[in-house]
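Please fill in the sequence for the structure shown.

STRUCTURE ENCODING:
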């Protein structure tokens, strides 16, 4: 009877090990499948979809990270800027070496890319703030458009800094030169410092010698940013032309 019990115990152990191996194989296979699917989604996605995809990667990092590194190398070799951006964003949570590349991409990003890159870099803001403020205050010659991108980042990272006292006018002067198509994206980016932008926007609003397109953008931004400041809106109405009045009065 003792031999029989040992036999059954051994058999049970073998079956248990076999089931465990099968379970692990299934787990590993599922992880690999998910990793490949997520990699494909990342490479095909629009940039604003990347944050959700990267969040979904968290349970599958052991499988997907090697795939991402391979995709990043291929994107760099092919000079595919969009895929290089997406793979760098996806690798950033496990590879701080991507910070410098993404900082550079932020400064030259398209408006729809700015909030995505900014938010991914937020955990590293302490090491970037000095460089970002330097660009806001004095961008390199020929790279003046980088100011708005850098300012969009510090608007979120450092909205209480007293440097906004002088930077606000610089930012607004660049902001009203942007294509109106991107106004919604830029207005959201600067919402954390909207109160600091009302004064320079109001100056452009009242500048009857200024370009109409700039005054129109300033008017639309003021209608948004000063919507909760009835006294400011009332003062603006007193100086508004017919078009401006039509935008501000409903607020």
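FILLED IN BY: designer on duty
SEQUENCE:
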């Amino acid at each position: 009877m003792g031999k029989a019990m040992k036999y059954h115990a051994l058999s049970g152990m073998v079956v248990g090990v076999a089931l465990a191996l099968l379970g692990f194989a299934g787990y590993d296979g599922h992880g690999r499948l998910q990793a490949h699917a997520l990699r494909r989604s990342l490479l095909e996605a629009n940039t604003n979809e990347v944050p959700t995809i990267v969040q979904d990667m968290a349970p599958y990092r052991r499988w997907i990270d090697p795939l991402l590194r391979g995709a990043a190398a291929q994107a760099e070799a092919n000079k595919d800027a969009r895929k290089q951006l997406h793979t760098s964003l996806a690798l950033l949570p496990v590879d701080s070496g991507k910070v410098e590349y993404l900082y550079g991409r932020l400064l030259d990003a398209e408006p729809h890319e700015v909030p995505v890159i900014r938010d991914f870099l937020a955990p590293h803001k302490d090491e970037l703030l000095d460089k970002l403020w330097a660009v806001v205050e004095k961008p390199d010659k020929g790279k003046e458009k980088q100011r708005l991108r850098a300012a969009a980042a510090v608007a979120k990272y450092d909205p209480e800094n007293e440097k906004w006292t002088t930077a606000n006018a610089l930012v607004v002067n660049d902001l009203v030169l942007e294509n109106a198509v991107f106004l919604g994206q830029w207005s959201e980016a600067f919402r954390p410092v909207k109160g600091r932008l009302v004064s320079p926007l109001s100056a452009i609003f009242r500048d009857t010698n200024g370009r109409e397109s700039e005054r129109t953008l300033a008017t639309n931004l003021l209608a948004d940013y000063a919507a909760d400041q009835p006294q400011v809106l009332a003062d603006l109405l007193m100086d508004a032309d017919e078009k401006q009045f039509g935008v501000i009065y409903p607020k």
